[in-house]
Amino acid sequence: MSTRVGIMDLREQLVSVTQGNVIVMGIGNPCRGDDAAGSRVARQICEGPGVHVIDAQDVPENYLCQVAHHRPDTVVLIDSVDLDSMPGSVALLDQDRTVGYWPSTHRVPMSLLVDYLERTTHARIFLIAIQPRQTGFLQPMSAEVSSSVEGIADLLNDVLGMRRVPAHAESSSPWKGKVPA
């Protein structure tokens, strides 16, 4: 799956792919304008039963053991990626297509991250890619990307909050027996 999508299309796709224990990992350098998009989305996602959120910033490799520890069924990565489209455009890429869209500013190539996650977790891996306008050092986030960040964060909170969680996720959840606020 490698389609540029609108927020409503993204909602439908995320409902179908976010199953079981889900890790959401935001990736991006907070000092480089639109490159901070994934990190900013992660900071707006609410954790709950079967959902763990990691703001990896520009060092996702530092969190791979933490991801594996949570035994995810689905891993959703979020990052700025040059999709050769309009700023703020969004694409949902599966693990087979993720590598082809990774002209990255990060130290470790996405192909290595995805390969490691596949081998250690056997999870389904997806990338929510956001087309940046500007990634210069100390530049502000563009209005287009900021709007996409807000939309994706709201969408993920909605989709992840309405899912049914498998029994093994509920038993290890800190929310067990509690109603989240």
List keywords for this structure.
single chain, 181 residues, alpha/beta, Rossmann fold, six-stranded mixed β-sheet, 6 strands, 20% strand, globular, disordered C terminus
SSE layout and pairings?
Elements (H helix, E strand, L loop, with lengths): L1 E4 L1 H11 L4 E6 L9 H6 L8 E7 L6 H6 L4 E7 L9 E5 H4 L11 H12 L2 E7 L12 H19 L5 H5 L10
Parallel strand pairs: 2-3, 2-4, 4-6
Antiparallel strand pairs: 1-5, 5-6
The biggest beta sheet reads: 6 strands, mixed
The multimeric state of the shown protein is: single chain
The CATH superfamily name is: HybD-like
Order of helices and strands: EHEHEHEEHHEHH
Can you put this structure into words, describing what you see?
With 181 residues, the chain is of the alpha/beta class. It has one domain: HybD-like (Rossmann fold), CATH 3.40.50.1450. Helices cover 35% and strands 20% of the residues. It contains seven helices and six strands; from the N terminus they run E-H-E-H-E-H-E-E-H-H-E-H-H. The protein has helices spanning 7-17, 37-42, 64-69, 95-98, 110-121, 143-161, 167-171, and strands spanning 2-5, 22-27, 51-57, 74-80, 90-94, 124-130. A six-stranded mixed β-sheet has the order 1-5-6-4-2-3, with helices on both faces. Helix 2 links the parallel strand 2 (22-27) and strand 3 (51-57). Helix 1 (7-17) runs parallel beside helix 6. The longest helix is centred in the last third of the chain and has 19 residues, at 143-161. It is globular and about 35 Å long.
